[in-house]
Amino acid sequence: MDFRTEFKPLTVQPQEIEEKSFEMITEELGEHNYTEEQFKVVQRVIHASADFELGRSLVFHPDAIRAGIEAIRSGKPVVADVQMVQVGISKPRLAKYGGDVRVYISDADVMEEAKRLNTTRAIISIRKAAREADGAIYAIGNAPTALLELIRLVKEGEARPGLIVGVPVGFVSAAESKEELLKLDVPFITNIGRKGGSPVAVATVNALSLLAERQG
User: Fold this and answer.
1) Options 3.20.20.150, 3.10.580.10, 3.40.50.10230, 1.10.510.10; which CATH number does 58-213 get?
2) Annotated catalytic residue, options 29, 47, 91, 184
3) What are the protein's UniProt keywords (predicted)?
């Protein structure tokens, strides 16, 4: 049996594949109103999702890029809502400035407290992060309840994030949590609607760390 295929890839070189992908994204997306630095984030989100609609739905607080770069270069941690986000973020680029990626959702004390209060681990993990990770970048790709709790803590002065990357995916409260984030007067990157997820949160943080690295 012949398993050969007539299809041949344009290239098998990783760097060339990425560069070609970004060229195609730029061409297909067409005109946009993003700044040059914001567009670096948009490109990586589309690259991670192959979803132009999602890319066009991204919204940036005016200070978002500056705040993200500043947090990374100051060695602030990245707080991920779930392990999937933690795994995908480039650790070496953060470590260069003394930063790391933290996720609290599976901590024993978080699980115990969530059970005691009959609430989600995502909510309790954000409360713990607020106590331990002042000035952090919060990368929320899965849990709308985590984003809503973070918004509440910010409003009450109990959390001081450097940047909120709020892109949870889903049908229950995902879009609504992002609408609430848009009302917040802190730096954020989010998107409109139900789409989002771990790859989007990861791509956003990785784009920011690349921008931070390019500043020297």
Assistant:
1) 3.40.50.10230
2) 47
3) Cobalamin biosynthesis, Isomerase
